[in-house]
Amino acid sequence: MILPPSTLAMLGGGQLGRFFVAAAHEMGYTVWALDPDAESPAGRIADRHIVAPYDDLDALSEIANHSAAVTTEFENVPAATLAFFEERMPTHPSANAVAICQNRITEKQFLLDSGFPHGDFAAIQSEADIIATDNNLFPGILKVARFGYDGKGQAVVKTHEETMTAYLALNGEAAILEKKLALDCEISVVLARDMHGNVKSFPVAENRHTNGILDVSIVPARVSALLAEEARVIAEYIAEKLGYVGVLAVEFFVSDGRLFVNEMAPRPHNSGHYTLDACTASQYEQQVRAVCGLPLHDPRPHSASVMVNLLGDIWFDADGKIREPAWNALYAVPNLVLRLYGKRHPRHGRKMGHFTVVGERLDDALPMALAARRAIGISAGLKRGM
Length: 386
Ligand code: ADP
Ligand code: MG
What we know:
Bound molecules: adenosine-5'-diphosphate, magnesium ion
Number of strands: 17
Strand content: 25-35%
Distance between the termini: 45 Å
């Protein structure tokens, strides 16, 4: 076991890393963060922030010399960087697991090869692949295979011609064409797995997206107990099949009452922020435990919860000028926790913070969270049965 006050290294400096740093600090650890952005949210609160690219060998060597274990909050850390650490020290998740999850083609192929339920897809790596595409995939979504997030690098396409146009716009990047499913809803499972194969899953979250970006997570998900259980079992099998150690999130589509795995995230997940305020241990504490070889916490929800993402959009007034949102509107709501990531530059679509409303029952928390969402100026989206 790696015990406090050992130094842990976090590859990636975003908000997921920032919450990891905070959890590790509370547990008595020291944390170094690596992120090329000098103002990265995790870097700003880490004991040391190394400002360097993820493949900078001097930076990697210095981290290896000073830390006891390495983890990540960002699936686009080069697999070679994780492999570098793997040769030298405990590194979780593994380079192999991250490599599978960071490319939509290897990810879908893994689901197919392992027999996990997923939507129809085709790998698109050449114009010939498009010509050979089955009509059944239309209407579909063409997604760039690497570095896409929050719906970026995606285009809805209805024909072979539209697919060709969207593919050519990617300038030779590999892509995947997925059949567009009619969604009943979307859910996710966040779990932690330790090096002995013990797994602890958090309650299933129901996720509402607006413009391809997670908007609201509702926990417990309003799906049948059977479906939630099935999602948990599939997510745990995926973790086992990957030989995964750390925190893993599995996103699912529910279509026609059935589950389809959408994608995996080899890290804590936006839809698991609620664990900070509604569970006895958060996904970030579980990550510290898994990475350090500590026994996992058996996390229990003590409340129902609704998490709402705060995007940079609400920093812009009607004239397009930037000003701080009126936070007093949120502080007026009982049982609401506001968490801001310390990002200096608001942009449209950029995740700047979130809030979580907890309650004894979802019937209490949900209307309160939706009212608070409106009160802070979020007007877009949220169709279908809220
Ligand atoms: P990201 O990496 O941006 O999260 P996703 O593949 O999860 O990419 O896509 C973002 C969102 O777009 C999904 O959560 C879902 O709402 C919608 N979406 C993506 N793929 C499909 C699909 N095949 N069918 C229907 N909706 C989809
Ligand atoms: Mg997604």
